[in-house]
C-alpha cells in the first residue's frame, strides 16, 4: 500500500487500457487512495463488469467499465460522456492504452501503422480534448500520458510505436503549456521494459529465433537496451502516476520523465 494522499479521495480517475498490465496496476494504486475508477480496455462487458465489481467491493469506491475501441473517436466520446454521467467528472486522466508491432519499415503493414497511431497517440488527443474544459472550470486536473522510452529514442523495427510515442511527448508539452494557469498538470512517463503482456511476443520471437527459454530470452531482451538488468513491475509505474497526482508534484508539468533503468542515460 502506498502513502495515503488524502487530497485524492473522491476524485475520479479514468485510465485507458486498465484491464491489463500497467493500466490495471495504476487503477489499483489510485483506488487504494479512495479515487473512483473508470476502468477501460478490451474485454467483454461481462468480464469488465465483474472487474469493476471487484474494485467496488475491495476499495469501497464507485466504478464504471467500458470496452470502447480507441481506434474510433466517436466511441471515445460516447464512452467518456457515459463515464462522466455515471461518476460525475474526470479529475485524473491516464492515457495508457497501447499496442505494439515490430517489423522493418519497408514491410511494416499499413493497418498496423494506422492502429498504433490511433491507439497510442490519437486517442490521447481525443480524451484530452474532452476533459480539459471541465478540469479548467474546476481549476484542478492531472493528465498523465504513459509514453515510453521510445518517446525519447528510437529502436529498429518500431517505426509506428516510436512515432506515436514521440508524438505523445509533443502532445504532452503543448497541453501543459496551454493548461499551466488552470491548475492542470500534464506529464508523460517514459518507461523502459515493464513486465506485461505487451512485450510477450517480442520475448517469444527471441526465444524461438535463438532457441532460448522464455526467461533467457526475456533477460536478453532487457539487457540489449537497458543497463538495469530487470524489468520494472507495472505497479512501479502506478506509484509514479500517484506521485504526479499528489501535491509534491504540483510544479512538475510538461515533462517527459524516463523511468528506464538508465536506458536513455547512455
Ligand atoms: N510493457 C512495457 O515494456 C512498456 C514500456 C513502455 C511503455 N509501455 C506503454 O504502457 C502502456 C500500457 O502497456 P502494457 O505493457 O501495460 O500493455 P498491455 O498489453 O498489458 O495492456 C494494454 C491495454 O490497452 C488496451 N487496448 C489495446 N488496444 C485497444 C483498443 N483498440 N481499444 C481500447 N483499448 C485497447 C488493452 O485492452 C489493455 O487494457 C502502453 O501505452 C505501452 O506502450 C509499455
From TrEMBL:
PROSITE patterns assigned: ADH_SHORT
SUPFAM superfamilies (UniProt xref): NAD(P)-binding Rossmann-fold domains (SSF51735)
Domain of life: Bacteria
Pfam families: adh_short
Family: Belongs to the short-chain dehydrogenases/reductases (SDR) family.
Protein's recorded name: 3-hydroxybutyrate dehydrogenase
Natural source organism: Shewanella litoralis
Classification lineage: Bacteria, Pseudomonadati, Pseudomonadota, Gammaproteobacteria, Alteromonadales
Amino acid at each position: 500500500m502506498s502513502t495515503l494522499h488524502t487530497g485524492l479521495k473522491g476524485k475520479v480517475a479514468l485510465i485507458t487500457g486498465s484491464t491489463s498490465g500497467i493500466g490495471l496496476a495504476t487503477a489499483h494504486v489510485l483506488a487504494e487512495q479512495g479515487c473512483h475508477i473508470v476502468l477501460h480496455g478490451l474485454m467483454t462487458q461481462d468480464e469488465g463488469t465483474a472487474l469493476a465489481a471487484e474494485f467496488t467491493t475491495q476499495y469501497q469506491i464507485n466504478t464504471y467499465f467500458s470496452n470502447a475501441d480507441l481506434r474510433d473517436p466517436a466511441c471515445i466520446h460516447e464512452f467518456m460522456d457515459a463515464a462522466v454521467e455515471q461518476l460525475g467528472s474526470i479529475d485524473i486522466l491516464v492515457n495508457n492504452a497501447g499496442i505494439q508491432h515490430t517489423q522493418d519499415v519497408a514491410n511494416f503493414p499499413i493497418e498496423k501503422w494506422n492502429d498504433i497511431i490511433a491507439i497510442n497517440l490519437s486517442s490521447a488527443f481525443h480524451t484530452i480534448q474532452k476533459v480539459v474544459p471541465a478540469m479548467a472550470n474546476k481549476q484542478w486536473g492531472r493528465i498523465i500520458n504513459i509514453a515510453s522510452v521510445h518517446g525519447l529514442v528510437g529502436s529498429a523495427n518500431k517505426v509506428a510505436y516510436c512515432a506515436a510515442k514521440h508524438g505523445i511527448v509533443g502532445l504532452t508539452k503543448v497541453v501543459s503549456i496551454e493548461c499551466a494557469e488552470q491548475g492542470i498538470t500534464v506529464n508523460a512517463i517514459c518507461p523502459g521494459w515493464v513486465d506485461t503482456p505487451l512485450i510477450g511476443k517480442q520475448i517469444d520471437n527471441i526465444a524461438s529465433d535463438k532457441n532460448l527459454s522464455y526467461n533467457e530470452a526475456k533477460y536478453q531482451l532487457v539487457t540489449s537496451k537497458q543497463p538495469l538488468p530487470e524489468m520494472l513491475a507495472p505497479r512501479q509505474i502506478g506509484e509514479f502516476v500517484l506521485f504526479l497526482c499528489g501535491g509534491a508534484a504540483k510544479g512538475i508539468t510538461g515533462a517527459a520523465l524516463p523511468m528506464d533503468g538508465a536506458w536513455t542515460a547512455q
